[in-house]
Each structure stands twice: as C-alpha cells, then as structure tokens.
Design a protein that fits this description.
The chain contains 3 helices and no strands. By secondary structure, it is mainly alpha-helical.
C-alpha cells in the first residue's frame, strides 16, 4: 500500500519546471515582422501625406512659402520620382507600339 501512495504522490504531485523567461525564435520572428509592418505603414502614410500635400499645392490651398526645407526636399523627390516613372512608362508604351 505504501508503494501505491508513493507512486500517486510522484504522478500527481510532481513539481512543474520553472518556465523560461527567454523569448523563442518564433516570438522574435513575430516581433520583427510586426516592426517591419509598422514601418511599412509609416512609409505609406508619409507617401499619402506627400500626395495630399501635392494636391493641396496644385489646388492652391497651400502656399509654397509655408513649406519647411524638409517638406520642400520631400516634394522635390516626389516630383522627380513621378517624372521618372512617367518617362519609363512612355518608353514601355513606345516599345509596345513597335512590337
């Protein structure tokens, strides 16, 4: 009978090992993906803000003199990328017409 009692104690009263406080590889990967996702959203919001600013400038709702130096640089880069994209699309269209 004593053996049975000891066996029951061993089975039902086992001490649980302490949980490790370190993060797992999966948790680290999830954290990195979450950070990358947040950075992507920030970049898209910035682009959206630049496009909204461009629209306000075109409509005359915003004065060019009120822009900061950083905003002027960003707008210049935006215009440059739009022009380069347009030129590239024109080249592709011309190639498509020749074929």
């Amino acid at each position: 009978m004593k053996k049975w009692i000891e066996w029951i104690k061993k089975v039902f009263f086992k001490k649980l090992p302490a949980l490790e406080e370190t993060t797992t590889r999966v948790e680290n990967q999830y954290s990195n993906e979450k950070e990358a996702f947040v950075n992507t959203i920030k970049a898209e919001n910035e682009t959206t803000n630049l496009l909204a600013m461009q629209k306000k400038l075109e409509d005359g709702l915003m004065d060019e003199n009120s822009l900061s130096t950083e905003e002027v640089i960003k707008m210049k880069d935006l215009y440059h990328s739009q022009v380069m994209n347009l030129i590239e699309n024109i080249k592709k269209y011309k190639l498509a017409l020749k074929n």
